[in-house]
Amino acid sequence: MANIMIQGTTSSAGKSLMCAGLCRIFKEEGFRVYPFKSQNMSSSYYLNSKGHKISASQSLQAIACGLLPESDMNPILLIPKTDNGSMVVINGEEKEDMEALEYFKFRPTLKKMILEVYRKVEAASDIVVIEGAGSPAEINLKENDIVNMGMAEMADAPVLLVADIDRGGVFASFYGTVMLLEPHERARIKGLIINKFRGDKTLLDPGISMIEEMLGIPVVGTIPYLELDFKEEKSSTGRKPHSIDLGDPQKIEKELNKLAHSLRENLDMDYVYRIMDLESSVR
What we know:
283 residues; alpha/beta; Rossmann fold; six-stranded parallel sheet; four-stranded mixed sheet; 10 helices; 36% helix; 24% strand
């Protein structure tokens, strides 16, 4: 069994689609692959055949793996109800509304459950693709973390850190994120990925060389900006909680293949396999 974790310097850096693209690549290469995100916050959710609520992102990743969406892919879903409170969904079932501080105190009790679910899916898979949430450098929330570096430690997973260059400040976001981590957390970050790039990459190369030297972590991919037609998952509290239909299956397959092709072209997959201690099954 092997695993890989995708974390981001910010929300919406591209973690979910990066995971979906990797899931599709691993499936294409003959691996039994499974998506996992211990905790997600979103006002939209997918209702699976068992009536369980899970995040739309992990449902899309399930399709990329050739699997049906199930609650083990997303053991905790927080559905915002107010600016300061969410419905807590555990293993696909609604439990109770909690204010933010109340949930922060409750969160450590969920670690055992998360680890049990993760060990179950790990035992049944060749590769688990794990997604983080927000940023691992949110230092006010790091205590008893269960979704970023805390999850990476539970799974003993190598981490790839993604940043969105379309927002600007990509090198600052890499540097700031890494430097706010503890030394043992930094050691888990095995590569940096620049996402949503537009323009001439040769203009980017000097910055890549400098950030690699500053951090001692290689930039393993520069992913171009892609127009992908997927239903968007909403984390904002400004929308009423609602279930989401993922859309036309044929279109989803087409878009997933397009995403996987872009990653194959622009991400050092040989390096990805090496940090997972795996070899591609097709080479």
